[in-house]
Specification:
This protein is of the alpha/beta class. The protein has ten helices and twelve strands. Helix 8 links the parallel strand 11 and strand 12. The two termini are 15 Å apart.
Length: 252
Amino acid sequence: MLTRRIIPCLDIKDGHTVKGVNFVDLIHAGDPVELAEAYVQQGADELVFLDITATVEKRKTLVALVKKIAAAINIPFTVGGGIQHVDDVAALLEAGADKISINSAAVKRPELINELATEFGSQFVVVAVDTKQEEDGEWYVYTHGGRTKTDIKTKAWAKEIEERGAGEILLTSMNHDGTQEGFAIDITGYLVKHLGIPIIASGGAGTKEHFLEVFDRSLVSAALAASVFHFNKIQIPELKRYLRDKHIAVRL
């Protein structure tokens, strides 16, 4: 049985962990190094670090902070934000990243996915997709930290991501982000059904039941959350025991 992963996410702005609702109204959520250490102790399966303003500010990821966090943890560590070229990745690898996440740069130049997969291996490449369901019912891709809408439809983009060699997709529903009202089951389940690479569900976690729902109904490989972990609304050990009791395979 596939072991499902629980992944806290550190959204970083100006060196601090932040969290908002629907990608806006950001508030301070704690010291990223201290949070990372706490999540390892709690039993998180992986950790994601997203420098959420790197692309907007046209700069590279905060490598020094990545290095500090990597030195404090011993679980798989995915880093994203501001990666534009293959050359940008070397510094992150050296700093301790196990995987990298690209988003806006991949939409702007999809060949980057191929280049990174060829250079480092598909298992190293995560493509983050920020998506929003519009009034026409379609899910569209957004870039630049959710600031810029594109005409790209999420389902088609996800298929292209897989075909270009990415090893995983981090799917964040902007409609659900920070609301703590549950994950986007429909679009997540669709991608799990139609793709052959793992999908990480993101956006909307508010209760232990929401994690059960997304694992049970969408069959997703992993679920990512921020606010409920940062502000101690849900403790990871408690969540994992709950999921195990509901017959979801997790690593305790």
